Amino acid sequence: MKEKKGKSRGRIFLLLSFCFFILFHSVVAMAASWPTADLTAESAIVVDAETGAVLYEKNGDVREYPASITKVMTALVVLEHASLEDKVTFSHDAVYNVDRGSSNAQIEEGDVLTVNDCLHALLLKSANEAANALAEHVAGSREAFAEMMNEKAKELGCTGTHFQNPSGLQDENHYTTARDMALIGMAAFQNKAFLEIEKNLSHTLGNLKRLPEGNTIYMEHKMMLSNTKFYDKRVVAGKTGYTQIAGNTLISLAEDQGRKVVTVVLKDKNPSHYTDTKALLDLAFSETENQTLGEHPGALEALRKELVSAGKITEENKIHFLDTVKISLPKGASQDGLQYVFTDIEGDVPASALGKVQILLDGKVVGSGYIGKDQNIQVILNNKETKKKVAVAAVTVSGFTILAGFGFFLFGGGALYGAKNLHDERKRKKKWKERRKKNLEELQISEEEFKILVEKRKSEKKKK
């Protein structure tokens, strides 16, 4: 009888264990899947501003009309080519070459304002005459300024965008995509002057012909206004847009607990452009997270072999990321299965960079980082105890090993990788200790000799 009860309990235990196993793996699988959203907008996207990862998109590459969110690009170009204290004189064409009834700040022909005033009118009030006047001030004409906008768009990596004017007024040759506008929003997030202007929810334009006492303009993005039902404290900047053909458009820059994202909705309805944006922010901040890229020797080795085959490095070279790399993943997702794709780079990049590596999960880019190769250094050591030279003992030490060791002496190892918490930091510190110890043992170099190598390498660089 006891045996039967024991067997019965054993079966129940196995059954419960199996159920728990299935439930656990189902939860993990759910946590690792990319989140989705039910939106009204015809096109939408939310992008992590640090990693560049697309956290969710809906028709992200479909061309749509941007309407007045165009003015974010207008502001970026102006901030690159003009001083905030420059004086802008409003021409007849700047004031009157706009659609009847379109957004304006009551600025008249002949009024003179600073670039700073004009940018506030542009971004807070969406004043079309301010867009025209700024374009004329910077480039001489709206047409020439639009070319500058297109050049900037190309520089930022936009592939489905063409600007025809600085205001966003309807034109069949004036279009963009949600993905491209997110790239523009990421650039705006990095522009301190842009963010400073957007912080001001109101601004007074003085000495206007129509309003000599001044005209106070107010922010129109309702998610930034605490007295509206759409207020969201996470939104730190953004721009509204609307035309009958474009529908409601909205770009928003948001931050929560140090993490920054950009949302874009195109061809939306009112007030869905606000509720859709909130849904995208909730998705980004609640259902995804940024992780520090862990060590994946197998994937990195596969990439190294590709670079050897392509003639980028020699067989002796190892490769490493130049800095700590952050990636964006569904909350709780594992980094297993990450893939590395190498791309050549040009322009303003670290001098020691071989190229840029895109990090993918299931074919989706989740982050990127610059990669470099370890340089070989030939060192001849002298035996100080016997005062005899060691027989041309050429010891090969990788530059990265030296940098890592030097960094360890300075920072205790963990700071090199910027682990996201103390537990990870201690684990990485321990790994670095073990790896450094192993490397030194293989090279038959003592700790003291290693320090000498570091100092010698530094002095050689100074002489060069």
Automatic annotation (TrEMBL):
Keywords, A to Z, come to: Carboxypeptidase, Cell shape, Cell wall biogenesis/degradation, Hydrolase, Membrane, Peptidoglycan synthesis, Protease, Signal, Transmembrane, Transmembrane helix
One Pfam family, please name it: Peptidase_S11
Signal peptide positions (record): 1-31
Q: Name one GO molecular function term.
A: serine-type D-Ala-D-Ala carboxypeptidase activity
**What sequence ranges are listed for the domain Peptidase S11 D-alanyl-D-alanine carboxypeptidase A N-terminal?**
35-269
Please, one GO biological process term?
cell wall organization
Instruction: Give yes or no: UniProt keyword Transcription.
Output: no
Which residues take part in binding substrate?
K239
Question: Which parts pass through the membrane?
Answer: 390-419
List the catalytic residues.
S68, K71, S126
The entry sums up its family as follows: Belongs to the peptidase S11 family.
PANTHER family xref list:
D-ALANYL-D-ALANINE CARBOXYPEPTIDASE, TRAFFICKING PROTEIN PARTICLE COMPLEX SUBUNIT 12
Recorded protein name is Serine-type D-Ala-D-Ala carboxypeptidase
> Which taxonomic lineage does the organism of this UniProt entry have?
Bacteria, Bacillati, Bacillota, Clostridia, Lachnospirales
